[in-house]
Amino acid sequence: MTLLILTALEVLNLVAGAEERQQELRARYTYQEVQENWRLDPYNRPIEGSQRTKTFDVIMLQGQRYRKMIARNGKPLTPAEQWEVEEDMKRAVESKLATTSLRDLSKTHKLTLNRDTLEATSDTKSHVFQFDPKTHEILRHTTQNGATKMTIDYTRLPSGTTLPGQVEVDFTVGDVHGIQRSTFSNFRLN
Question: Which has the closest alpha carbon to 60: 101, 29, 105?
Answer without folding.
Answer: 29
